[in-house]
Amino acid sequence: MSLPTDKLNHFVADHQLTKQQLLSLIDLAITIKQNPASYRQALAGKSIAMVFEKPSLRTHVSFDMGIAKLGGHALYLGQQNGKLGERERVCDYAKNLSCYADAIVARVFNNSAIEQLTQHATVPVVNALCDLYHPCQALADFVTLTEQFTDLSQVKLAYVGDGNNVANSLMLMAATLGVDFTLVCPDGYQPKQTVLDQALTLAQAGGGQLTITSDINALGFQNAIYTDTWISMGDENAKDKQQVQATFKPYQVNHQLMAASGADIVMHCQPAHLEEEITTALFDDEAKSVVFQQAENRMWAQAAVLVSLLAN
């Protein structure tokens, strides 16, 4: 069994990871995927607490089954416990879980909860999604891109749509890896300036090109186009759906946009709102859509993270 050499302490925010750590995780994810039997005892005797404030299909299943494939035990702590910090302090929650679990996986509403868990837990913390970042998804996406194109340094990736947590993580990870990345968001829907500044700094250090625009016609040549829902989970009641749909309509990812950019593949983290951010025909196009490859790679990417955090 091959183990990582550049050990992680936590996996919570993309900009906290080095290029070598990311490349090692991508390589390990592909290795585990190709040789799962060699890793079936990698987490033997380890227990993972999975804290979920938000509902989930892919995150819950991919962690639960991935941990089982590695010989570990996962305990799901769902919404019956309420939002972190309401029933009891997050610091107490973290310290209690650290008494029992070897690691904490948390899917939460606010990044502040992730930060507090990391500060007060004495075991590794994995960010399974928050309002700012979705590093597990981004890592799985770059595993997928590596399988599709082999040499990430030659890949041109564009994200089209809302500047949400997925866009943040993709942009930050691309910048760290030196991947050329284009972010296309309508005016007023770009990521926070602090995240944009982080990405620009990382891109300059990593040698990749970062382009940020609101002009869909400035997309240019791309190898892959990525999109996500126009309204994120938890924001349904905070945004005017009709206004959002009108604003984002020109940013729909479809066969015409794929042809204009020359993109080979389309990516989506799911669940998709078909005929909104992506057409049904493109989502179901087996020649171009890699959405289910991405979904499977969530399990292998997260397996690589947990092995890196916990394997002796």
Automatic annotation (TrEMBL):
The gene is argF. Belongs to the aspartate/ornithine carbamoyltransferase superfamily. Keywords: Transferase. Residues 10-147 form the Aspartate/ornithine carbamoyltransferase carbamoyl-P binding domain. Pfam families: OTCace, OTCace_N. This is Ornithine carbamoyltransferase. Residues 154-308 form the Aspartate/ornithine carbamoyltransferase Asp/Orn-binding domain. It comes from Thalassotalea insulae. It is an enzyme of class 2 (transferase).
